[in-house]
Model the fold of this input.
Amino acid sequence: MIRKENITVYSAETSKHSISAYLRDIFNDLPQAHELGFRLFKRNLTALYRQSLLGFAWAILPPLANATLWIVLRGNNVISVQDTGVPYPIFVLTGTMLWQVFSEAILAPLTQVTENKVMLSKINIPREGLLLSGLYQLIFNTIIKVLLLAGVFFFFHQTVELSSLIFVPLGLFAIGLAGFSIGLLLTPLGMLYQDVNRGLLIILPFFMYLTPTVYPAPQDGGIGLIMRYNPIAAFITQTRNWFIAQPVYDIHFFWIYICMFALIFLAALAIYRLSMPMIIERIGS
Amino acid sequence: MNTDTLIKVESVSKKFCRSLKRSLWYGVQDIGTELIGRSKSQELRQDEFWAVKDVNFELRRGECLGLVGHNGAGKSTLLKMLNGLIKPDQGSITMKGRVGALIELGTGFNPILTGRENIYSNGAVLGFTKKEIDQKFDAIVDFSEIGDFLDTPVQNYSSGMKVRLGFAVAAQMEPDILLIDEVLAVGDMRFRLKSFNLIDHLVERCSVIFVSHSMQNISRMCNQILLMENGREKYTGSNVSEGIDEYYQSLGSGHTDFFHSDSDFELLKIMINESEDELPLVKRLDDLIITLCIEINSKFENTVASVIIFDYEQKSVGICMNDNPINSIGEVISRHQGKTRIEINVKIPRINLSKGIYYITFTLTETLVSKPVTRLNNIKTFQVTSLYDVWPPFELEGVWYKKSDGVK
Done:
């Protein structure tokens, strides 16, 4: 309720024809969206941990469990993974953590709007607030994961270079951006059809193994080619290399992919804004 | 006070689709056409219908529009468009100023969190900043009357308490345009009165759109009325009482006759003022004559009869009874095979019911104070017409005078 004496027109005619017009609107609504998003984030967080014994541990348990499995498998020589240059637990834990960031980011927008369907269809809220709420939660969970990683690094006496402190956040940003953009792009369709959410839940684990999370990226062969052009693989490998202070391998692709996802993100944001009224009338409550 | 136009609705229409599967697919198509910048088709696709069609009105500050109509007439859809939740398919809506909606109370409540925490979440959903809520916090708690339960999880609240808390937060809005949808129907009597007072207060400085099925509330609050039927305007104007009449007429005698006979009792005929019309009209202060022809088991000949009048909301407004047995006050037409046929007439002179729809229930009891032998609910509907539109059930005749003129 910040607006004063302004005029709002709802018309059948589309008044805006450019993405920039939508983005300008979104930018103008940002303070209100933040107010709502942050409140919802706090609400969800308080409620979540008030009703849970393990609390924050849930942010790290899934990747931890996954990593443990791989450590056990490799330790018993069930599978063989080539030398990773650092203790394998560090390698696999960093990989699965980063993957988890990606997969949480991809699911965040759709989860938020689905959970708040009633609110969307009954009250005129700044709808980007829901996305922000998801974003804040993602950032919060990521921070917890990084803290855990720091503990593990400390345990294995793994050294962290000073440059890591600068580049790791950049890598995390890239992974988050990639996930969030894809998720946001799928959100309008996902609100109409449940197939999107179900499909994601099947595809994500499969895709995880096409990404060098638990093994180092092979340099050649078919898989090597896929990895090279798989932006998520580039992001995760790169970010992990920054984490464990290994040589950076192809920074150009990294930047190209970031620009690509930034564009996807802006387009998805505009599509979200434009399609919401049309979705709300179809889903009701 | 300035009385500028705050709401302008120009030939607004909205289509809906009956089949969910198709509806979702149309949704995908519509988003697609919007994305490539083409205009949507104006025609109805398969399974679509106009939920709202060609609605026009304007509302100034200080005016209150009553939006009435049957279930499914399009009221809520129109309200959703006004609230900016969905877009019109045709026409346009211009809203000037801040819009507040009392439509869904307590949205954003999380059952696990306390009342205190939920005030902040709900407030954020309604567009308040944390600072604003800090300032209004005491007022909210006061208004909600939840007292000691402020720090209890909302899941332990009674439903009334939840509604009160939700209303108390929503009541802090200072809108130019207020949309209200029946939310006043909840809560106990005292809280309802309090809410009404608050809304009366808000109405003075904003434009209000009020959706209700209670004609009493409509006539109490509104100075404009829009009656919708099948998505179209059936009546628009400032003559609220005429609109309410139209509304009642469109209802007809919809929900009469539960049962008209059992083995001991059969209603053969009922007339009002000699008329067998479906919905007879009675002018206020005319006599109301009810004629009943019944056939009863002869052993009930000595029972006594009452006529009870109910209003449209099924509240009883009056009873007319006689302690003489029906075979003496009514005319026995025949006695045959243990059944007695009797015609009863009852005249209620100068009926002073206020305008509206009323129902007649007929009962037979052994004595005036005993339980009914038989009871026929809503056997007849009639409509009272009057010049004025008032919300109390009676429009009493009074003599207003000066003492110096002497008592009339």
